[in-house]
Amino acid sequence: MKKPEYKLPKTILLSLIMILLPPCFVNAKSPPDMHPGHMVTIRPQEYNGPVRNPFKGIESRLKLPLTEKSNTKEWYKLGSVINLRGYFHWHTIESHKNSGKEKITARVNYLLDGFENYNCHGRYRSSPGVGTGYVETFLPNDLPETDYLNQTAYFHRRVAKTIQNLGETLDGDPRIALVEIGFIGKWGEQHNPTPTPETQEIMGQAYTDYFKKTLIYNRNVNQFKDFKFGYFNDAAMEIGGCGGSMEKFVAGRHPDLWKTYPMEGEVRSWSGAIMGTDHNPMVVLQDNNKTRWAINNIRWSHYSHCCLLGQVWWYGSAPRGFPGWDKLTRHEKENLFDIHKAFGYRFIITEFKYESSMSPGDVFDVSFKVVNEGAAPMYYKWPVEISLLDPVSRAPVWKETFTGVDIRAWIGGEGFPVGPGEGHKNFQSALYEYTTPAPAYNIKNTFRLPADIPNGTYIIALAVLSPKGTPALRFAVSNYFNGGRHPMGYVGVNLEPGQV
Fold this sequence. Notes:
The chain is of the alpha/beta class. The protein folds into two domains: 193 residues, Immunoglobulin-like (Sandwich), CATH 2.60.40.770; 286 residues, TIM Barrel. The strands form three sheets. Strands 3-10-9-8-7-6-5-4 form an eight-stranded parallel β-sheet, with helices on one face. Strands 12, 14, 15, 17, 18 and 19 form a six-stranded mixed β-sheet that branches. A five-stranded antiparallel β-sheet has the order 1-2-11-13-16, with no helix packed on it. A hairpin with a 3-residue loop joins strand 1 and strand 2. It is globular and about 80 Å long. The two termini are 44 Å apart.
């Protein structure tokens, strides 16, 4: 891969919580344009490095509950989606049919306590731990294994009730990014045994009825066809993996599903079909052809996140697994950053307009243009905030959110010029762009300045807020303050333009 234009800031190696952006202020491509009425146009410079944002990137598998020690796991530095699947065995949330919701609440709070403080989100799956060739049993005490394996009417009632309890407890929980269907099959992956058509209908309808806010996804392309769920490719980027399941999606079963439901997957680190005959997962970062292969797969499949190299943490006993963040070469880090940038959304502000001089109580306009250069949208409707900050403390003096703005609608490019080709050779020869480039979205709102705001100079800033109400999603621009707000310029209240 060609060397990126950016330098590796020291903060990348040290920061565990903040996104990978150096602290800076306005860094525009050109001086601001002044217009009649004191209108200023800012054209921010794109930040060329990776941004650690919610619901995207390289998935981590952290030891739970979170502690300062667990947060030093290597992939937490880039990924914000945490795999929770091993921590929600069925019997840990329901010991018998009358368990109710208290056991779910207690288990979830124990494992996810503090997630909101780290800007990361869990991927949830309930596992029965029972299947062909699988010796562990994690079923509730009063659910016979034979009912589960034969998918009887009693099993259907139990699983539907449990899904209802989960929905009434977890739906909309800001700590949970996604909920996988789970519950049946080896590892809760809907194989060995496979859910019958009746089981699929009952479970699919229960998830549809009781999860109205949190997104659901399935991991088998041939199941739950009548339901609009996201898709988890169990053999992501693998040549013909799982019967060419992603190829089936891209070819036309749900060609636009990625626009509203997430695509994600697991890259099996032991697969020679992906990594080469030596089964070395690090070849993805060492070999530029494999880096191109990964990026093209992400773009073609519209992946939000995958456990690409994070999978190595799970299979840590491999003799040539991930060596550790600080042992990566510069070349490996650069390729890693390029791969991370391709995942999910990447919002770039190309233009920001505002009035630089106002009086208390004035009505004023703010507008900006944003482009999504990533492979997928942001799937949750988080509000966009405008604020005036104290220039010294950088604390908000005034803030409001834009109305009529849905960041889920900021779709990126689409249409890929080539398919993977035989042996994915097409994806290794060159990097490809979407045939329909990402459009620019024009956002404009009118606001009113408070009548009692003190005179003086302020910094006008943008941010995207989490459900907690704090800045959480970062734009890929160099205008950035640690903590999540993007400063765009100065505003004067009861000051002449020349004084601002």
